[in-house]
Design goal:
42% helix; 3 domains; Jelly Rolls; alpha+beta
Length: 300
């Protein structure tokens, strides 16, 4: 079943400035908001799923956060700490003292699905404690990469976002080797030859569609987090990089055949449009698809 965030909110004095930009990955949904807030603006937010609130940019006034409307103390945002974790079902109130604009990232977690991706028993009670306005350089770095995936029309493969989300979840849960169980505590090794062949054959056969990390991990009979490390150890590439290389090889075959336009090839190969194909192709191979095709014709 596809995960859909379950959130209700009430806002006053807050105006959304741009269309919502969002992405869905295995076990999480991330969305980026850009809003203008008037002096005295306030809001109430309740999500039925755990979420991480990340301030990406802010100009102007300040905001206060609190977990109860009657709380006498609020957590102000004048400090540089821009991460807040709110457990599932816990209301959050905010109030802005002066006009400001803000761009923020919301990440909604399907905690059970993410824990299942680790292939180990994870104590989800760790997600029952709120943390408002805290600092974590590594979490912030991952969050910014996730926000970039939401904002960039030329975003990476879904497997890249899946990996980012799993890394963020592990850090947020503060899972060390002991937290992931005995299987994860062992030194991570490379995939066995049979696993490499099974997975790479599958990627080659399905490279023109979106391939999920879960599919590949199941083929190798491993948890998703273990699989990602083991695949790179065996091949030198992350799964999404191998997938993209396979996709571009198919694109080259179609270009060489000369039977389709660039627009048609972009659609068949799963790119958003011709411009998207051109950017990815040039970034990987150093020239545009058109130039590559012309060079092949000249040589022939």
């Amino acid at each position: 079943m596809t995960f859909r965030p379950r959130m209700t909110s009430y806002r006053e004095g807050i105006t959304v400035l741009e269309d919502l930009r969002w992405r869905r990955w295995n076990g999480a949904v991330a969305d980026v908001w850009h809003a203008a807030c008037a002096a005295g603006a306030h809001g109430e937010y309740v999500s039925q799923d755990a979420r991480l609130f990340v301030v990406l940019e802010r100009e102007g006034g300040h905001s206060d956060l609190k977990l109860s409307p009657s709380a006498t103390e609020a957590v102000g945002s004048r400090a540089p700490e821009h991460l807040s974790f709110i457990p599932a079902g816990m209301p959050l109130w905010s109030r802005i003292d002066e006009p400001m604009t803000i761009r923020h990232l919301d990440i909604h977690f399907d905690a059970k699905a993410l824990a299942g991706r680790l292939g180990e028993d994870v104590d989800l009670e760790r997600l029952a404690t709120p943390r408002l306005r805290f600092a974590d350089e590594r979490l912030m770095g991952i969050a910014r990469l996730i926000a970039a995936e939401c904002l960039d029309h030329n975003a990476h493969h879904d497997l890249y976002g899946d990996g980012l989300m799993l890394a963020l979840f592990i850090d947020l849960m503060q899972l060390g080797r002991t937290g992931l169980g005995h299987a994860q505590a062992r030194k991570r090794g490379a995939l066995a030859p049979w696993q490499v062949k099974r997975v790479t054959d599958f990627i080659e056969a399905n490279c023109l569609r979106s391939v999920r990390l879960q599919e590949l991990a199941e083929l190798a009979e491993l948890s998703q987090s273990y699989f990602s490390h083991a695949f790179k150890a065996a091949t030198g590439l992350a799964p999404y990089q191998w997938h993209m290389q396979a996709r571009l090889r198919k694109v080259q075959e179609m270009l060489a055949a000369g039977e389709m336009t660039l627009t048609e090839i972009a659609v068949v190969a799963g790119f958003a449009d011709q411009a998207h194909l051109t950017r990815v192709f040039r970034r990987a191979l150093g020239q545009t698809p058109g130039a590559w095709r012309r060079a092949r014709v000249a040589v022939a």
